[in-house]
Design goal:
Shape: globular
Strand order of the largest sheet: 11-10-1-3-4-5-7-8-9-12
Radius of gyration: 20 Å
CATH architecture: Alpha-Beta Barrel
CATH topology: TIM Barrel
Number of domains: 1
Helix content: 25-40%
Number of helices: 12
CATH class: Alpha Beta
Length: 311
């Protein structure tokens, strides 16, 4: 089980490819903070079943004041891997050290531009120099905590894709472990509205291969789509042959201040074990081995569209 947890539904930036630029959507949907006293209850309910906890999914987790305690609780329940997805602009050297010492395994930093101009344009209210400061702080922290990982999530579109040719010239000095290239997807009514990748289709292979070679030289793991071809009249999803996505509905658990994975799961009064027994969860998973691929595709969200080169 992979738990994706948004402890607070808010963000300090207004990235132009994100639904936080839709004021009406944010007003109606993005509000709420998880209470500190509920963290231990949440841990008792599901952390012992988790292989991974990701703090931050659809909002900015560094706005939450109790992340250190959250990480410590997850570690007390022996969650093997804990990561945090953040734009990094609210982190400082002290936060980085505290989270790492509490047991955080990975910082995942989101970025949408290699140059200052593009970064600050697409990540509205973001500060380019601050982002570099955070990368440096994590790089230095890795000397004390060598198992701490630094991952970059780069969401690309037709306007920022070609900057990736200069990625290592600008960011090569930082101790990056993983780079994930994420093609733009429509996730709401956003300020940036060019969702086509047609202009970069032919050049994608050349640049992704360049990144693959450079990542290999540096011992960096690269996650990337094998291609960006997609039928844009039907879907903005990049086509994939990754059948692992069929497992997604049974392994991926999203939690926020106002939502918990399954509507009938009262996480404050019952455990995952009691819930799955009541819903015959194990039997449902077993039966999937005998049903058609077409039936499975009804719940396939096509999210696992990456190739992985591990170095």
């Amino acid at each position: 089980m992979s738990i994706q947890l948004d402890p607070v539904l808010a963000c300090n930036l207004r990235c132009k490819m994100c639904y936080f630029t839709d004021a009406d959507f944010v007003k109606k949907n993005m509000k709420g903070i998880m209470k500190e006293e509920n963290l231990e209850v949440l841990g008792k309910t599901i952390f012992k079943n988790a292989m991974k906890l990701q703090i931050g999914c659809g909002a900015e987790p560094t706005l939450f004041k109790h992340n250190t305690k959250l990480i410590e609780i997850a570690k007390s329940y022996k969650v093997p891997y804990i990561s945090m997805v953040t734009n990094g602009n609210l982190l400082d050297r002290k936060n980085v050290a505290e989270f790492a010492e509490a047991g955080l395994d990975e910082f995942i930093l989101s970025m949408h531009g290699v140059t200052k101009e593009t970064y600050e344009d697409l990540m509205d209210k973001g500060v380019y120099e601050k982002f570099h400061d955070v990368l440096q702080s994590i790089t230095e922290q890795k000397k004390t905590n060598p198992n701490l990982r630094l991952r970059i999530n780069y969401t690309f579109n037709e306007d920022n894709f070609y900057q990736l040719k200069d990625f290592f010239e600008v960011y090569g000095k930082y101790k990056i472990d993983i780079i994930q290239l994420r093609p733009i997807d429509k996730i709401g009514e956003t300020t940036y509205n060019n969702f086509s990748l047609k202009k970069i289709e032919n050049d994608y292979f050349e640049i992704s291969n360049f990144l693959k070679e450079e990542a290999h030289k540096r011992g960096i793991t690269l996650l990337y789509p094998q291609s960006v071809y997609r039928n844009e009249s039907e879907s903005l999803k990049v086509k994939t042959q990754n059948d692992s996505s069929y497992l997604l509905p049974y392994t991926y658990c999203y939690v926020s201040p106002d939502f918990f994975w399954k509507d009938d799961f009262d996480w404050k009064t019952e455990t995952f074990a009691s819930w799955k027994k009541r819903n015959k969860w194990d039997s449902r998973i077993f039966k999937n081995a005998f049903i058609s691929k077409k039936s499975l595709e009804q719940t396939n969200r096509n999210m696992l569209n990456y190739s992985v080169d591990i170095n």
